[in-house]
Amino acid sequence: MTTAAAMEPVLTARGLSQNFGERSVLSGADLELRHGEALAVVGVSGSGKSTLLYALAGLRQPEGGTVAWGGHDDVWSLREPEITLARRSTCGFVFQFPAFLDDLTVAANVAVPLVVSGTRPRGARGRARELLDRFGLGPLADNYPATLSGGELQRASIARALVMEPGIVFCDEPTGALDEKNSELVVGELRRIAEEFGVGVLIVTHDPSVWTACDRVLRLDEGRLVEEGSAP
Ligand SMILES: Nc1ncnc2c1ncn2[C@@H]1O[C@H](COP(=O)(O)OP(=O)(O)OP(=O)(O)O)[C@@H](O)[C@H]1O
Ligand SMILES: [Mg+2]
Fold first, then answer.
1. From the CB of 44, is ligand 1 less than 6 Å away?
2. Are 156 and 98 in contact (CB under 8 A)?
3. What confidence tens digit (pLDDT) does each residue in 151-168 have?
């Protein structure tokens, strides 16, 4: 990657707005996410973090504003199925409660996005295994999800989020269901994937241990994003 390309934000959002009835949840929120950066968005419960993440990730259309990523000036100007295809190639997701298919092994679950996109199952499972190895989960690749701990499942979901080689990984409260030790492990992996894979990692969370591990912290306050400065 050239230096110029590395400087270019992987995501740029401008003027996002969203009201629910009388309530203004987003009112002119701007955000830039860079390659290789882990960015935390913090705010009290109900401040609109998930609403923001859904708008940024092309999952739920905001009432106003633009979101640029994946070569699109505004992903919200796309229609279905283009937006779904764009999301599939550019975005990975890590949620508080990762959803896995119970009847598939962990490796097969991690391979699902590749298989859906047309990769042969054998090759896809091989790629999934490589990623699971990198997250220290190689020995669990042939187990079923029900046999893994919450922390192991969350790390497997990070591997799954990377399997399509996305430019951006969106995380909504990725440590919300984990104890302190597993939170640390998961945050460490998110930090590492920003550095090692050069992806932009955007984490919305109220967990302070996540903020300190991130490169930048933005606070969502009255519908706008305000920089908190670099974390120590
Ligand atoms: N589809 C919807 N219809 C009506 N109100 C909604 C909808 N989605 C969210 N809200 C409201 O918007 C506000 C922001 O919700 P959001 O889920 O984005 O907050 P959050 O910061 O993610 O909260 P938490 O930290 O609890 O996850 C809340 O008051 C919520 O009730
Ligand atoms: Mg939320």
1. no
2. yes
3. 999 999 999 999 999 999
